[in-house]
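Input C-alpha coordinates:
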Protein backbone atom coordinates (compact mmCIF):
# COMPACT_ATOMS: atom_id res chain seq x y z
CA UNK A 1 0.00 0.00 0.00
CA UNK A 2 2.95 2.32 0.59
CA UNK A 3 5.63 3.09 -1.98
CA UNK A 4 8.93 4.76 -1.09
CA UNK A 5 10.79 7.22 -3.29
CA UNK A 6 14.48 7.22 -2.47
CA UNK A 7 16.42 10.45 -2.10
CA UNK A 8 18.69 11.56 -4.95
CA UNK A 9 22.21 12.61 -4.05
CA UNK A 10 23.78 14.62 -6.86
CA UNK A 11 27.27 16.08 -6.80
CA UNK A 12 26.81 19.66 -5.65
CA UNK A 13 29.11 22.66 -5.92
CA UNK A 14 28.44 23.56 -2.29
CA UNK A 15 28.50 21.45 0.82
CA UNK A 16 24.74 21.67 1.25
CA UNK A 17 23.37 18.95 3.50
CA UNK A 18 20.98 16.76 1.53
CA UNK A 19 18.09 15.10 3.26
CA UNK A 20 18.42 11.42 2.53
CA UNK A 21 15.14 10.24 3.98
CA UNK A 22 12.92 8.59 1.42
CA UNK A 23 9.41 9.91 0.90
CA UNK A 24 6.40 7.67 1.27
CA UNK A 25 3.26 7.71 -0.85
CA UNK A 26 0.29 5.46 -1.32
CA UNK A 27 0.67 3.17 -4.34
CA UNK A 28 -2.60 4.72 -5.50
CA UNK A 29 -3.85 8.13 -4.29
CA UNK A 30 -7.39 6.77 -4.40
CA UNK A 31 -6.53 4.94 -1.17
CA UNK A 32 -5.96 8.23 0.64
CA UNK A 33 -9.09 9.70 -0.91
CA UNK A 34 -11.14 6.74 0.33
CA UNK A 35 -9.61 6.88 3.82
CA UNK A 36 -10.43 10.60 4.00
CA UNK A 37 -13.89 9.96 2.56
CA UNK A 38 -13.17 12.99 0.36
CA UNK A 39 -15.55 13.91 -2.42
CA UNK A 40 -14.42 15.92 -5.45
CA UNK A 41 -16.08 18.95 -3.86
CA UNK A 42 -14.16 18.37 -0.61
CA UNK A 43 -10.88 18.31 -2.53
CA UNK A 44 -11.70 21.44 -4.51
CA UNK A 45 -12.30 23.19 -1.18
CA UNK A 46 -8.98 21.93 0.22
CA UNK A 47 -6.37 22.56 -2.45
CA UNK A 48 -3.48 21.64 -0.13
CA UNK A 49 -4.79 18.09 0.28
CA UNK A 50 -5.73 17.94 -3.39
CA UNK A 51 -2.19 19.03 -4.31
CA UNK A 52 -0.65 16.27 -2.19
CA UNK A 53 -2.91 13.66 -3.80
CA UNK A 54 -2.12 15.02 -7.26
CA UNK A 55 1.62 14.84 -6.54
CA UNK A 56 1.14 11.24 -5.40
CA UNK A 57 -0.65 10.42 -8.68
CA UNK A 58 2.06 12.03 -10.81
CA UNK A 59 4.89 10.26 -8.95
CA UNK A 60 3.13 6.93 -9.36
CA UNK A 61 2.81 7.50 -13.10
CA UNK A 62 6.37 8.79 -13.49
CA UNK A 63 7.74 5.67 -11.81
CA UNK A 64 5.82 3.44 -14.20
CA UNK A 65 6.96 5.42 -17.25
CA UNK A 66 10.58 5.61 -16.05
CA UNK A 67 10.68 1.82 -15.65
CA UNK A 68 9.80 1.42 -19.33
CA UNK A 69 12.92 3.49 -20.12
CA UNK A 70 15.15 1.57 -17.65
CA UNK A 71 15.10 4.49 -15.26
CA UNK A 72 14.24 5.42 -11.72
CA UNK A 73 12.45 8.24 -9.95
CA UNK A 74 13.95 9.91 -6.88
CA UNK A 75 13.18 13.00 -4.83
CA UNK A 76 15.50 15.80 -3.74
CA UNK A 77 15.35 18.00 -0.67
CA UNK A 78 18.12 19.86 1.08
CA UNK A 79 18.38 21.64 4.41
CA UNK A 80 17.74 25.02 2.79
CA UNK A 81 14.30 23.89 1.61
CA UNK A 82 15.27 23.57 -2.05
CA UNK A 83 13.52 20.60 -3.60
CA UNK A 84 12.48 18.69 -6.68
CA UNK A 85 9.39 16.52 -6.35
CA UNK A 86 10.87 14.05 -8.84
CA UNK A 87 14.24 13.39 -10.37
CA UNK A 88 14.02 11.00 -13.32
CA UNK A 89 17.36 9.26 -13.77
CA UNK A 90 17.95 6.86 -16.65
CA UNK A 91 20.58 4.12 -16.77
CA UNK A 92 22.42 5.94 -19.59
CA UNK A 93 23.15 8.82 -17.19
CA UNK A 94 20.50 11.22 -18.50
CA UNK A 95 18.36 12.89 -15.86
CA UNK A 96 15.74 15.57 -15.40
CA UNK A 97 14.16 17.57 -12.60
CA UNK A 98 10.41 17.83 -12.05
CA UNK A 99 8.14 19.89 -9.83
CA UNK A 100 4.46 18.98 -9.52
CA UNK A 101 1.94 21.83 -9.24
CA UNK A 102 -1.83 21.92 -9.62
CA UNK A 103 -1.45 24.86 -11.99
CA UNK A 104 -1.75 28.59 -12.18
CA UNK A 105 0.94 31.02 -13.25
CA UNK A 106 2.16 31.75 -9.71
CA UNK A 107 2.68 28.08 -8.80
CA UNK A 108 4.23 27.25 -12.17
CA UNK A 109 6.68 30.16 -11.76
CA UNK A 110 7.58 29.00 -8.23
CA UNK A 111 8.20 25.47 -9.46
CA UNK A 112 10.31 26.65 -12.40
CA UNK A 113 12.43 28.93 -10.18
CA UNK A 114 13.05 26.10 -7.72
CA UNK A 115 14.20 23.80 -10.52
CA UNK A 116 16.53 26.43 -11.98
CA UNK A 117 18.10 27.09 -8.55
CA UNK A 118 18.69 23.37 -8.04
CA UNK A 119 20.20 23.03 -11.51
CA UNK A 120 22.70 25.78 -10.66
CA UNK A 121 23.75 24.01 -7.43
CA UNK A 122 24.75 20.84 -9.26
CA UNK A 123 28.42 20.51 -10.17
CA UNK A 124 28.19 20.05 -13.92
CA UNK A 125 31.90 19.24 -14.13
CA UNK A 126 31.09 16.01 -12.30
CA UNK A 127 27.56 15.42 -13.59
CA UNK A 128 26.02 16.06 -16.96
CA UNK A 129 23.52 18.85 -17.46
CA UNK A 130 19.89 17.84 -16.87
CA UNK A 131 18.13 16.73 -20.03
CA UNK A 132 15.11 18.74 -18.98
CA UNK A 133 13.43 20.78 -16.26
CA UNK A 134 9.65 20.40 -16.09
CA UNK A 135 6.65 21.49 -14.08
CA UNK A 136 3.82 18.97 -14.34
CA UNK A 137 0.39 20.51 -13.89
CA UNK A 138 -3.19 19.35 -13.54
CA UNK A 139 -5.07 21.95 -15.53
CA UNK A 140 -3.17 23.16 -18.59
CA UNK A 141 -4.55 22.22 -22.02
CA UNK A 142 -1.21 21.69 -23.76
CA UNK A 143 2.49 21.32 -23.05
CA UNK A 144 4.87 24.14 -23.82
CA UNK A 145 8.43 25.29 -23.27
CA UNK A 146 8.87 28.55 -21.39
CA UNK A 147 11.41 31.16 -22.47
CA UNK A 148 13.67 30.05 -19.59
CA UNK A 149 13.74 26.50 -20.98
CA UNK A 150 11.45 24.91 -18.38
CA UNK A 151 8.73 22.68 -19.81
CA UNK A 152 5.18 22.94 -18.50
CA UNK A 153 3.43 19.62 -19.03
CA UNK A 154 -0.17 18.74 -18.20
CA UNK A 155 -0.46 15.35 -16.54
CA UNK A 156 -2.75 14.25 -19.40
CA UNK A 157 0.24 14.52 -21.77
CA UNK A 158 2.36 12.00 -19.86
CA UNK A 159 2.81 8.67 -21.55
CA UNK A 160 5.60 6.14 -21.92
Amino acid sequence: MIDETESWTPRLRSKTAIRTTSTKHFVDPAIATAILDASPNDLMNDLNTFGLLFENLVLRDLKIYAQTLNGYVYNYRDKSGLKADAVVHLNDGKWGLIEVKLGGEKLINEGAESLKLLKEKIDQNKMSQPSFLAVITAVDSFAYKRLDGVYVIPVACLKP
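The CA atoms of residues 135 and 152 lie 5 Å apart. The chain has a mean pLDDT of 86.
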